[in-house]
Amino acid sequence: MGTGGYEHVDRDRAGQAEAFDAIGDRYDEAFPHKEGQLAAGGWLTASLPAGSRVLDLGCGTGLPTARDLSAAGLQVTCVDLSAHMLELAGRNVPQARFLRADVADLAADGPLPHGGFAAVAAFFTLLMLPRPEIPLALRTVRDLLEPGGLLALGMVEADVDDAPIPFLGHTIRVSGYLRDELRHVVVDAGFEVIKEESYTYAPASTDVPPEEQLFLYCRRA
């Protein structure tokens, strides 16, 4: 199987999926308000004709993104590394398709057709990767899109690489960029940034401090 450059990085996911398996039932309670995610998902639904194929990469519980995309008449494929998150998404969006996979598994010769999607939603998914993998993941996403396909990308603005943080009683590792660098990384991966939005977000009932969320509305260049 082709790996699209992933053979040159150490793909260590130890603890990441297990943490989300454990916190899945509390996730939506801890993160109840998702204005930026709703707006970016709304851009996709407004931009695509009914029946378009859309990938929700790192779908979590399926709320709100996969649910809203499906309700708009789009054909949604949900991908997540956490088996429990996919189980919850299956209950919340039963009409979607589901695949348990790592983003690296979606590189060349993977289980999903390259060029087969009109859009990809990736809300805080790439946040869970070490920085060396983020450009590779973005190029994989670009390959999955049809020419001119859309990407709605959500990240947290932070100058960190694979940093451990407490998260709902567990530890996860996260990476991020400051906004100018994030934009450069996305453009270098083959996207045109159409629009950028930012939101200050304070999670409810969690030990995570307030964060600045960045949403990039992109098109495959």
Structure report:
This protein is of the alpha/beta class. The chain has a single domain, classed as Vaccinia Virus protein VP39 (Rossmann fold, 3-Layer(aba) Sandwich). Helix content is 30%, strand content 32%. The chain is built from six helices and nine strands. It has helices at residues 16-30, 35-47, 65-71, 83-92, 134-144, 179-188, and strands at residues 53-57, 75-80, 97-100, 117-123, 145-156, 160-167, 170-176, 191-201, 211-220. The strands form two sheets. The protein has a seven-stranded mixed sheet, sandwiched between helices. Helix 1 runs parallel beside helix 4 (83-92). It is globular, with a radius of gyration of 16 Å. 40% of the residues are buried.
Quick summary:
Helix content is 30%, strand content 32%. By secondary structure, it is α/β, with parallel strands linked by helices.
